[in-house]
Structures are given as structure tokens and as C-alpha cells.
Design a protein that fits this description.
Strand content: under 5%
Structural class: mainly alpha
Mean pLDDT: 82
Distance between the termini: 19 Å
Order of helices and strands: HHHHHH
Shape: elongated
């Protein structure tokens, strides 16, 4: 009887392991495109924020430079953490570090977006700040010789800027959720494996 129960336990354990393996394989496939989207967003965002620097000689904001550096660091960390595409070489501690740094990156991007477009943008009480909003499209318009024009080009740049941030930050948040699910599943798998080995002892 005890032997039969042990066989049943082993069978159900193997089924759970197989289900988790399939689920984790799907999550791993999802994580890669989100990691690519994240680094792409950071690069496009940096190039966009470099326009006033290149056109008018303005200084690049320190926060924007740090966002780029952190984003550039995260992609190789992602590759290392996930074993360069081989699950047998992945490192859970590095995946956790990748997730934590991603939270910091997304948080900083969101704060910059909030301050730029909400707090000190169109709602600014200082007329000079309000006149300069949005600074990057206006910098491009001044460089092209259109002054303070609100032409279709200006509106298109403004829409692109907002859409880029909303889509980029949203995709990064979804990707972070997928990583969190993967880490939780891996931690649970290790706990179950440890518990199973103790029972056998």
C-alpha cells in the first residue's frame, strides 16, 4: 500500500514538473522580445533626447544619461542571466538582479515622463516653462527656422514623443511581470525539488 502511494506521489510530481517545464518554456520565449523592446525603447528615447544637444548645443540631462547607461547594462545582464539562450546555464540570482534593475529603470522612465508631460509640462505655472513645452519638438522647430510654430510637423513630433514613452514604458511593465512570473515559478520548483529529496531521505 505504501509503495502504491509513493508511486502515485511520484507520478503526480512528474506531471507537475512537466507542466511547469512547459509553462517556463513559454515564459522564456516571451521574455526575450520584451527585453529587446526594452533596449530598443531606451535607445530610441536617448536618441530623441539627444536632438536638442545635437541641434542647439544644449546639455544632456543627467537622468537621461543614467537611463541610457542602465538600459545598456541590462541587455547583456539579461543575456547572461538567461544563459545566452540555454536554460541549463541560467542563473536565478542574476535574473532577480535583472528584475530589480528593470524596476529601477522603468520607475525612472515613468517619473521622467510624469514630470515632463504632466507636472512641469502643459500645467506649469511658470510662463517660461509653459512656453518651452514640449522642449524637444520646439527645439527642432527652432532649428528648422519655424520659431514657435505649431504646425503638423510639431504636432506629429509631440504625438510621437508621448506615444513612444507610453508604449515603451507599458511594454517594459508587461515584460517585468513576465519575468516576475518566471522567477516565482523557478523558486517554487526549487522548493518542491528540495522537499521531494527530503521525503526520499
Amino acid at each position: 500500500m505504501a509503495s502504491f502511494e509513493t508511486e502515485q506521489d511520484d507520478g503526480s510530481h512528474r506531471m507537475r514538473v512537466a507542466d511547469r517545464y512547459k509553462s517556463n518554456a513559454k515564459l522564456r520565449k516571451l521574455i526575450r522580445p520584451f527585453a529587446i523592446i526594452q533596449i530598443t525603447y531606451i535607445c530610441v528615447r536617448t536618441v530623441w533626447n539627444m536632438l536638442p544637444v545635437a541641434l542647439l548645443g544644449d546639455d544632456l540631462q543627467v537622468a537621461d544619461a543614467l537611463i541610457f547607461l542602465l538600459g545598456a547594462l541590462l541587455f547583456p545582464l539579461y543575456q547572461y542571466a538567461f544563459g545566452f539562450g540555454r536554460s541549463q546555464y541560467e542563473k536565478l540570482w542574476a535574473i532577480k538582479a535583472y528584475a530589480i534593475l528593470s524596476i529601477l529603470l522603468i520607475g525612472e522612465c515613468f517619473i521622467r515622463f510624469w514630470l515632463y508631460h504632466v507636472m512641469f509640462g502643459p500645467n506649469a505655472t511658470d510662463p517660461d516653462v509653459a512656453m518651452a513645452y514640449p522642449p524637444i519638438p520646439k527645439a527642432v522647430m527652432y532649428y528648422l527656422g519655424y520659431g514657435n510654430s505649431t504646425s503638423y510637423l510639431f504636432r506629429a513630433m509631440d504625438l510621437f514623443e508621448k506615444s513612444m514613452d507610453v508604449a515603451g514604458i507599458g511594454a517594459c511593465v508587461v515584460g517585468l511581470f513576465v519575468v516576475k512570473e518566471y522567477v516565482s515559478s523557478q523558486v517554487e520548483a526549487k522548493k518542491q525539488a528540495a522537499s521531494k529529496s527530503k521525503k526520499r531521505e
